[in-house]
């Protein structure tokens, strides 16, 4: 006989066999089996990694005062070094940022709080998500209809209500929409709790929102068993995300209390979303007004008649405002110097 070899599809076959065994043992319809299996897997794998991630985030935040104190102690030497070299304010910012990033990495590494540990929920979820999705796709495929018609027909009548057949796409798009909306809500929760948004974080947030919207048409083309699994997994993740921001839940799971902790996270998020929505429409109105003025050939407050010299740079020689800004500015949780940069004075012509 030919020796058995391990392949990726053997893992999918084993997953399918496990799901079928679970369905048979419980005696539940397939829609309930899918929901129970999803919640069980997410509880066993995702929840512990999410709790660990929150502990890492909390401990990193509690180290922020040490990072700020070190930054304020470092600033005078950075000022002196750049003053002697006759460097510009931008060069001083970059110099300070490099040293702060290196110090932050060393400090977090010594405390066992490396950045990669904050990605454990994602890293632990992806392999399971892919494997289970392929198992459901295989169960609903034509090959299964030919090789195991009993399993295929059981899945075809294992739905509920308007979603009776789990081997075909959801004709009403209810599951794809639920998936997309819950994924977007999860992303907005992440954005809401980011204290300082760097350009990279803004790019990742935009990319994540785009992918969440793309999942809606993707989920509308796959068997309903897959989209039911995806939607249930996304809703469960959203529920865990909400719960892990409540102080009482965080204490139960041993997450340290931090200064940024909020007693009413849902209310705070609703207020933030309203503020962002108002700011978005205000920006839209301003752009429309600006376009109208441009069309008439009239300058606006945002369009000065006299352009500034773009090559002008400022040095920190005899610049007490710059020195004070660097020395007194706090450092954000991620160790970047965005807060420092915002407080530096605008560039002035070289003396």
What would your notes on this structure say?
- The chain is mostly helical and 351 residues long.
- The chain is built from 14 helices and no strands.
- Helices cover 69% and strands 0% of the residues.
- The N terminus and C terminus are likely disordered.
Number of continuous helical runs: 14
Principal-axes geometry comes out as elongated
Tell me the radius of gyration: 27 Å
Low-confidence stretches: 1-5, 300-319, 326-351
Biggest sheet statistics: none
Question: How far apart are the termini?
Answer: 86 Å
- Averaged pLDDT, please? 81
Write the element-wise H/E pattern from the N-terminal end onward. Answer: HHHHHHHHHHHHHH
The secondary structure category is: mainly alpha
Helix content: 55-70%
Give the strand tally: 0
Report the portion of residues in β strands: under 5%
Keywords:
single chain, disordered N terminus, mainly alpha, 351 residues, disordered C terminus, 69% helix, 14 helices
What's a concise summary of this model?
The protein has 351 residues and is an all-alpha fold. 69% of the residues lie in helices and 0% in strands. The chain has helices spanning 8-26, 30-62, 64-85, 89-110, 120-139, 142-147, 149-156, 174-192, 199-219, 224-243, 247-252, 265-296, 320-328, 338-343.
């Amino acid at each position: 006989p030919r020796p058995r070899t391990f392949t990726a599809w053997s893992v999918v076959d084993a997953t399918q066999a496990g799901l079928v065994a679970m369905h048979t043992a419980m005696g539940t319809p397939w829609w309930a089996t899918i929901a129970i299996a999803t919640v069980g897997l997410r509880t066993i794998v995702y929840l512990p990694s999410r709790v660990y991630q929150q502990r890492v985030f909390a401990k990193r935040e509690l180290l922020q005062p040490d990072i700020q104190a070190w930054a304020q102690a470092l600033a005078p030497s950075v000022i002196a070094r750049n003053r002697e070299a006759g460097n510009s304010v931008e060069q001083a910012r970059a110099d300070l940022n490099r040293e702060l990033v290196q110090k932050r990495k060393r400090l977090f590494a010594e405390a066992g709080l490396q950045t990669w540990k904050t990605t454990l929920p994602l890293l632990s979820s992806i392999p399971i998500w892919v494997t289970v999705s392929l198992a459901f796709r295989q169960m609903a495929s034509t090959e299964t209809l030919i090789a195991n018609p009993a399993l295929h027909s059981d899945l075809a009548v294992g739905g509920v209500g308007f979603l009776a057949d789990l081997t075909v796409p959801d004709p009403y798009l209810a599951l794809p929409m639920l998936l997309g909306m819950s994924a977007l809500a999860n992303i907005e929760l992440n954005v809401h709790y980011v204290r300082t948004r760097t350009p990279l974080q803004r790019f990742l947030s935009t990319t994540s929102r785009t992918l969440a919207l793309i999942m809606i048409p993707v989920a509308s083309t796959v068997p309903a068993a897959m989209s039911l699994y995806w939607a249930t997994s996304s809703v469960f993740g959203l529920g865990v995300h909400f719960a892990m921001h409540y102080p009482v839940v965080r204490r139960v799971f041993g997450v340290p209390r931090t200064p940024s902790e909020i007693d009413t996270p849902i209310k705070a998020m609703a207020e933030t979303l309203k503020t962002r929505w108002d700011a978005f429409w205000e920006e839209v109105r301003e752009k429309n007004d600006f376009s109208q003025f441009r069309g008439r050939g009239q300058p606006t407050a945002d369009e000065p008649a006299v352009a500034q010299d773009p090559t002008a740079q400022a040095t920190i020689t005899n610049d007490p405002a710059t020195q004070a800004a660097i020395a007194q500015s706090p450092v954000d949780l991620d160790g970047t110097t965005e807060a420092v940069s915002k407080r530096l004075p605008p560039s002035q012509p070289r003396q």
